[in-house]
Amino acid sequence: MTLGKEKISFINVPTPIEKLNTVSGELGINLYMKRDDLTNYGTGGNKLRKLEYFIKDARDKGATMLLTVGGAQTNHGRLTAAVAAKFGMKAAIVAVDEYPGEISANLLLDGIMGCPVYLVRNDETRSEGQLLKKAVAKVTDEWTAKGEKVYFIPLGGSNELGALGYYDCALEMADQVKEMKLDNVHIITTVGSMGTYIGLAAAIANEPLDMKVTGIGISPKDDIHQFAADYYDRLKKAYGLKVDLKAQDFDLNSDFDYGGYNNPVDDVRQAIYYMGRKEGIILDPCYTGKTFNAIMKLAKDGKLNKNENYIMIHTGGVPGIYTKHHRSLMEEELMSYMHII
């Protein structure tokens, strides 16, 4: 039980923390990776930690179906589908997004797991939020009429309940780094819907834990620091946390989002190739690729402390490589590795 909330534990934790020896040597820093991509359902990823809490709440409320939202290629949606399948429930995903022209990547996996995806065209007469709200209500009514009790999970699983997954992860990491005899630990994680980062930051501040955490923004936000402060305030109110944190207390970097979400970026692809060729670890172009690209550039610019032990959380998302707009560019760039003899 964490902060008074129970979960159903079903993932293979603790996930390993591995030293990236070659990358560390070449970048001149001590870099480790927390392998949350190795969690054990739906090809893995960070959202499974959050879903341990959501599935407990959903079952307690008698739900028979999980409904969530995201982009057409949502990783969170894929993992929601996986958890629903494991627990004998139905799942569905609603996205204000265009049909990408093919069933690939997460969309393919959603179908394999029996999860319908509802794509909503943006008609430019209403905001995305309005379109999403209307579509969620319509899909909920459709499945309720079929006899299902629908439980809604927000974007990325990033609300007060979902954040507890990474509150737990911070405690898990504190035990691991103690056993590894690592000091001056500095976690670096991707920031999208921000539940992973806020959970870590909340635990570090309130337990307290002798670690730091930096978040790397992968999509533009009007004010990423205020976004974090508002989210933390909701957590503080929900769970009676004692520590006050203001916008300036959150270490967040939005310099490497390249002006978009899930947008193809040459620097990011080069970072993916580098990690694959140096460590045999595959990153994705939307989340972890952007995060590692930021780490590379900060290290090369001398902005990372050589005395700290950095741990990048691999949040998963590898199916994103197979989305058409990323895959086609990689195919062009990697054609020279193909030989027919």
TrEMBL record:
Query: What are its cofactors?
Result: pyridoxal 5'-phosphate
N6-(pyridoxal phosphate)lysine sites (modified residues): 47
GO BP field: alpha-amino acid metabolic process
Query: What domain of life does the UniProt record list for this protein's source?
Result: Bacteria
Which family would the database say this protein is a member of? Belongs to the ACC deaminase/D-cysteine desulfhydrase family.
PANTHER family reported for this sequence: 1-AMINOCYCLOPROPANE-1-CARBOXYLATE DEAMINASE-RELATED
Name-wise, this protein is D-cysteine desulfhydrase
